[in-house]
Amino acid sequence: MGERILVLVRHGESEWNLKNLFTGWRDVGLTEKGIREAQAAGRRLKAQGLRFDVAFTSALVRAQHSLDLMLDELAQKNIPVLRDQALNERDYGDLSGLNKDDARAKWGADQVHVWRRSYDVAPPGGESLKDTAARVLPYYIEEILPRVLRGENVLVSAHGNSLRALIMVLERLSPREIVARELATGAPQIYRLNPDATVAEKQDLAA
Predict the structure, then answer these.
(1) How confident is the model at residue 207 (pLDDT cuts 50, 70, 90)?
(2) 142: Cβ contacts below 8 Å, ≥ 6 apart
(3) Confidence of residue 1 (pLDDT cuts 50, 70, 90)
(4) Which of 45, 60, 69, 101 shows a CA-CA span of 20 to 30 A to 35?
(5) How far apart (Å, rounded) are the C-alpha atoms in residues 7 and 36?
(6) Quick one: what percent of the chain has pLDDT higher than 70?
(7) Which of the residues are catalytic?
């Protein structure tokens, strides 16, 4: 039996992160900085001596490209990669593609703050973090967790909010605690799980 290792990584900086736009399910690429962040994440994982059995990512190119770059650095391009929109970023609905400052001008800073930082209030036409968790967690329980518990080392390249949904469960955080959690781009979080799926140890490989 292996160590039951689960590694979560938010994709590198995207073009719309740089432009301060709500991205959600819009498919945008990585910036040069984002490429470097993903490569650096791969090197940090390699320095830990980690070998992965399988990787999971979303249906969005910024997460997939980040994963490819990490696997390149790890020299582990031959492992199975499973892609599913269950791991997509939170859908920001009518906010998608808008500059965050423009959104504040349109709806007011307080309302935009509620949409961004509440657990269960969704923006118009979009998802709340609670909605995001409702699709991420069943996929985790059915597809990802069983592999970890069998002793496989699993790498997940996804998004700030889809990963928050997982971290909320792994670290047993409240809705208030999880919406305050910031996830840096390209910063691996290593979890070693107990046989009952609780966390035995967490290691943050942020730069």
Answers:
(1) low
(2) none
(3) low
(4) 101
(5) 19
(6) 99
(7) 11, 89
Distance CA 164, CA 175 (A): 10
Structure tokens at 155: 């790498």
Domains of the chain: 5-204 (3.40.50.1240)
Residue-wise pLDDT tens digits, 161-174: 999 999 999 999 99
Task: Answer yes or no: pTM beyond 0.90.
Answer: yes
Read out DSSP for 150-182? Answer: TT--EEEEE-HHHHHHHHHHHTT--HHHHHT--
Phi–psi pair at 200, nearest 5 degrees: -85, -35
Burial of 144 (0-12, 13-18, 19+ CB in 10 A): buried
CA dist 114 and 54 (Å) reads 37
* Angle value at C-alpha 8, between 179 and 146, nearest 5 degrees: 110
For residues 79 and 128, give the distance between their C-alpha atoms in angstroms, rounded to a whole number.
33
d(CA 136, CA 134): 6
Neighbour-count burial of 120, counting CB atoms closer than 10 A to its CB (0-12 exposed, 13-18 middle, 19+ buried):
exposed
Residues contacting 21, CB < 8 A, separation 6+: 97, 98, 99, 100
Q: Model confidence over 97-154: pLDDT tens digits? A: 999 999 999 999 999 999 988 999 999 999 999 999 999 999 999 999 999 999 999 9
Cβ atoms of 70 and 38 closer than 8 Å: yes
Encoding tokens for residue 132?
């995001």
